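Reopening this one. Same input as before:
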Amino acid sequence: MNFKLKKYSQLTIQELYDILQLRSEVFVVEQNCVYQDIDGKDEKALHLFAYKNGTLVAYARLFGPGDYFEKASIGRVIIKENQRKFGYGHQLMKAANDAVEVNFNTSKIHLSAQQYLVNFYNAHGYQEVGEGYLEDGIPHIGMEKI
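Same output, byte for byte:
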C-alpha cells in the first residue's frame, strides 16, 4: 500500500469526504453503533490513509503526546470491509507506528482497542493496560506500545 500522511489542513475536500464516509461506513453502519464520529479532534491529528483503485481502503488518525491522551496515540483504525482479507491492517499499523515515531519522536503509543482485536494489536507490540470498558456500547481495552 502507498500510504499518504497529511495534516487536516492539507487534506483535499475529496480526501476528507472519503475519510468521513469510510469511518461512518465501518464504525456507524457496519458496527451498528450510533456515536459522534465528527468529534472536533480531526484538526489536531495527522491522517494516514491509502487508496486502492480510487477507493479509500485504509485509514488511521494519529495524535502527538498530550493532544488526546498523555502519550502519542493512534485511533480510528479502519480497513474497508471487503479489503480485510489482504492483510492491509498489518501494513496500516506498521505505517502508523512508524509515522508516530518519526513525527512525534516517541515509540510510546496508546490506543483504545476493540476487545476482539487485542491479538491483532499484540502482534504490533501493544499490551493491554487497565480494565476493559464499554465505549459506545462496544467492549474496549486500553493498549500501549512502549
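So the earlier flakiness isn't reproducible anymore. For the record, The chain has a mean pLDDT of 96.
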